[in-house]
Design a protein that fits this description.
The complex is a heterodimer of chains A (about 325) and B (about 575). Chain A is α+β, with helices and mostly antiparallel strands and about 325 residues long. Chain A is built from 14 helices and seven strands. The termini of chain A are far apart. Chain B contains 15 helices and 20 strands. Chain B has about 575 residues and is α/β, with parallel strands linked by helices. The longest helix of chain B is centred in the C-terminal third of the chain and has 25 residues. The chains are: A alpha+beta (about 325), B alpha/beta (about 575).
Chain lengths: ~325, ~575
């Protein structure tokens, strides 16, 4: 007998959420969604959650199970049982709960809308289809598998502290167009995406890749946008400058020159930005955290340089 | 009262394609009980048909003949002709909108083989073609968000009708439970199918006959409801879909003895015969005890295709097998069984998607329908794979154009908001007040079970009569059901109860029409009348509501180019 600990919330009845336990024998082969339906249809009809296709393509049934977002229809109930024979279900994170496991998707879709999620073609269309090579198709193959379930958005560590961040799903959707050989606005797109809240605000934790139920893998897509942004010369922002300073430092010395990376990231001609760094610098000094003034290369720096040379080729 | 020039119910392929047309000139609302990206069109996997001829020479005439033969000559051929002729253009338009397609080495849209099609004409995006088109259309709606208002998670309860004119819909917001009337100059239904009435189905939980029953309740007949398609490759027990593309790419079907049994049923097309024939072959094997391990199960074997081909063309299929039953199709065959998949019948419409009331083509003013909920009829008795996405896109667009022609310059009709709202509020109240002891869940399970066993792949008089009696009993018990959630906020239980009410009504209609059609044609097979009978039944069924129960009339089939012939593969 398994115990389902489900986070219940119904502001019509009580303002605070609480956990309720349900006992259920999980039939062999039952998905988590099957179990939730069994609970709802035989134990408590008031349990609310979204669902539709049952085959991991509509994206409705994303919930948090045992602390992590997933698609309820895609997982076998038995596989989610913890050592104490329980499964804990909660609503997706980073979104406002409406009732039980249902959350408000409005900010999620607002952000998708912000990235101009539609093709801006290069010229008037030909009579038949535009040609696109198989290689060009592959550049957008993965991002186009996104089902907008919100699992990545739920578990994104940046969103937890920064509402302004576009989030992994919207950025993966952006790559769908940045990478599309038929789109004409690549430069404008990567410029917009380099603004605060965009690609450079991602903390690279790759939690979204872990949670993505499809091959969309948002963080991989974010890295692809970063590469295009740098290739297109969109350097005039802290994120790009940080990435370039980081690369240059390693290229030059084989290790990170921490004294340079902060001023180079804000921009060495950005006076107010540099002044803004002073208090942090002072605090670091007081705590004895200032790195050595003279940066030394590592012994094998020639090997590092050779690697870069080969990468350039 | 909310007002829009045009309201479209349903945001799948047909609904969104229609909205893109209407928003060019008029103010349009799209209402969906889920979100556009969650619509069931997105679950379509294998492809969308068009005679592009990108890998082999092809023509609309061949596409038309295949469609008519596949439909067992019940298709209206004037409509089929328009439909297949439009196919290449609408596919190119989707590509121009940005839809992602798999490509040939020259960079053209790739095409693969599919059941019942004599040429490789299924344009595809790996094995998620519906998803690719759904998202491309949704992107276009987001681009046009100033002229299209989307109502996410709203439920349509009823049509507002005044004589022979439709003036709007009564709806409620699932999130808040609030009931509203939307007044409109024209209403378009793109509400999809009703596969959920069967136990084993590929359909989403949302495919529950809401649209067709709302139409039926205001006196509109339903056309050909007895024709339900069973897809040959539903996952064993769960029913979710493994695309026909798996067979299009060369997959085998094996019985319990490891034989490619299609040899005995359709020697020239083997696994790529039309779905009705393959599903019956599977059921016959299982009924004869030749299922895998003697169970109701057949094997879909893809191992000989190799991992590389599977990963390129069928990656989602592989993942579904791994996630849902722990079978990797690269190493082992997938267990499958026939699954209720598509409704060929629906709300009768003319070629321009205008809803009609009788065999003379009398129009219901201001009411249009497109996609699976409508019956044009381009699919006749059995739809070919990849023809449904095409149906949704072609007729979605056509509906949009006819709605513009109809609603341009029209005034709003008179709507008594209070009275209309009260009708639906009473429905809610009625369910909340029931203090019964019956479990809705049990009623639903029993309906699905009897429909599967008695009104499924094989039917006969005795089983159908028994089915109808059982359904009548269930409808009585439905009135004494027990509700637990009486709140207004995101009350999914109350909506499931209303959906169940619609499904029970639909199930009786399907079974009754199946009982009357004493022949076997396309997806409708009577073991007591195993032959097609053109003399008596070469016509569409038109099911009407009447005080004495269901009344079934007929409508002639439009035959232009191809005279009915024996259907062998």
């Amino acid at each position: 007998m398994a115990t389902f600990r489900i986070k219940r919330f119904n502001p019509e009845k009580q303002p605070e959420p609480y956990f309720e336990e349900f006992q259920l024998d999980i039939p062999h082969g039952a998905t988590l969604l099957d179990c939730m339906n069994e609970i709802k249809w035989t134990l408590d009809g008031s349990l609310s959650y979204r669902m539709s296709c049952r085959s991991a393509i509509c994206g409705s049934c994303a919930v948090k199970a045992n602390g992590h977002a997933l698609l309820a229809c895609q997982r076998q109930g038995e596989h989610l049982l913890q050592n104490d024979d329980t499964i804990t279900l909660e609503p997706l994170g980073n979104m406002k709960p409406i009732k039980d496991l249902v959350v408000d998707f409005t900010p999620f879709w607002d952000k998708v809308n912000k990235i101009k999620p539609y093709l801006e073609p290069k010229e008037d269309p030909p009579e038949k289809e535009r040609h696109q090579s198989q290689e060009e198709f592959r550049l957008i193959d993965d991002s186009s598998t996104c089902i907008m379930c919100g699992a990545c958005y739920s578990d994104c560590n940046t969103l937890e502290v920064d509402d302004n961040f576009l989030g992994p799903a919207a950025l993966a959707k952006a790559q769908r167009f940045v990478g599309d050989s038929r789109d004409s606005k690549t430069l404008q797109r990567v410029r917009d995406l380099s603004e605060p809240g965009g690609i450079w605000d991602c903390t690279h934790c790759a939690e979204c890749v872990e949670r993505c139920p499809k091959p969309a893998r948002p963080f991989d897509r974010i890295k692809e946008i970063m590469t295009v942004a740098l290739e297109q010369g969109v350097h005039n922002n802290n994120g790009a400058r940080h990435a370039l300073s980081f690369t240059n430092s390693v290229k030059r010395s084989g290790t990170l020159d921490e004294n340079r990376i902060a001023p180079e990231s804000v921009g060495i001609f950005n006076i107010s930005g540099l002044i803004g760094l002073i208090p942090i610098g002072l605090r670091m000094l007081l705590k004895g955290k200032i790195p050595p003034i003279f940066h030394k290369s590592i012994e094998e720096v020639d090997d590092v340089k050779r690697i870069f040379k080969e990468l350039d080729q | 009262m909310i007002e829009h020039d045009v309201v479209i119910v349903g945001a799948g392929l047909a609904g969104m394609r229609c909205a893109l047309e209407v928003c060019k000139e008029l103010d349009v609302a799209v209402l969906t009980k889920v979100y556009p990206s969650r619509s069931h069109s997105g679950a379509a996997q294998g492809g969308i048909a068009a005679s592009l001829g990108n890998s082999e020479p092809d023509s609309w005439e061949e596409h038309m003949y295949d469609t008519v033969k596949g439909g067992d000559f019940l298709n209206d051929q004037d409509a089929v002709e328009e439909y297949v002729k439009a196919a290449p253009r609408v596919i190119y338009e989707l590509e121009h909108m940005g839809c992602v397609f798999s490509r040939t080495p020259e960079g053209k849209i790739a095409q693969r083989s599919f059941g019942g099609h004599s040429k490789p004409r299924a344009c595809f995006s790996a094995d998620r073609t519906g998803h690719a088109i759904l998202h491309a259309l949704h992107e276009q709606l987001m681009k046009n968000s100033k002229s299209v208002k989307i109502y996410n998670e709203w439920y349509m309860h009823s049509l507002v009708v005044d004589g022979d004119r439709c003036n709007g819909v009564i709806v409620s917001n699932i999130q808040t439970g609030e009931v509203e009337v939307i007044r409109a100059k024209a209403v378009v239904f793109c509400t999809g199918g009703y596969g959920r009435v069967f136990k084993i189905t590929s359909n989403a939980f949302a495919s529950t006959a809401d649209g067709v029953m709302a139409a039926f309740e205001v006196g509109i007949p339903l056309e050909d409801p007895e024709f339900v398609q069973f897809h040959p490759s539903g996952l064993y027990r769960q029913g979710i879909l493994f695309s026909e593309a798996a067979r299009g790419e060369g997959g085998f079907l094996l019985n319990g003895k490891g034989e490619r049994f299609m040899e005995a049923y359709a020697p020239s097309r083997m696994e790529l015969a039309p779905r009705d024939i393959v599903a019956r072959a599977e059921q016959s094997e299982m009924d004869a005890g030749r299922g895998v391990n003697g169970e109701d199960c057949i094997h879909l074997d893809l191992r000989h295709l190799g991992e590389a081909r599977i990963m390129e063309r069928l990656p989602q299929i592989r993942q579904l097998g791994i996630d849902f039953i722990g079978v990797d199709c690269v190493k082992d065959p997938l267990p499958i069984q026939p699954t209720a998949h598509y409704s060929m019948g629906g709300i009768p419409v003319d070629m321009n998607c205008h809803v009609i009331l009788d065999s003379e083509g009398t129009k219901m003013n201001g009411f249009f329908a497109a996609g699976e909920c409508a019956c044009v009829s381009v699919h006749g008795g059995n739809r070919l794979g990849t023809n449904s996405l095409l149906d949704a896109v072609v007729f979605g667009e056509r509906a949009g154009k006819s709605v513009l022609d109809y609603a341009r310059g029209k005034d709003f009709g008179n709507v008594n908001e209070g009275r209309e709202k009260a009708r639906v509020l009473e429905k809610f109240e009625d369910i909340f007040q029931r203090d019964g002891s019956e479990s809705y869940n049990q009623i639903r399970d029993e309906m699905k079970e009897i429909m599967m066993t008695n009104c499924g792949v094989f039917r006969d008089e005795e089983r159908l009569k028994d089915c109808i009696e059982t359904l009548k009993g269930l409808r009585e018990r439905f009135k004494k059901g027990k509700v637990t959630d009486k709140g207004k906020l995101f009350n999914t239980e109350i909506y499931e109860i209303m959906e169940l009410g619609n499904m029970l009504g639909m199930a009786v209609i399907i079974a009754t029409a199946a009982l009357r059609r004493q022949e076997s044609r396309g997806g409708h097979f009577r073991t007591d009348f195993p032959k097609r009978d053109d003399e008596k039944f070469l016509h569409h069924s038109m099911v009407y509501d009447s005080p004495d129960g269901l009344d079934i009339k007929t409508k002639p089939v439009v035959i232009t180019k191809y005279q009915p012939a024996e259907r062998t593969y």
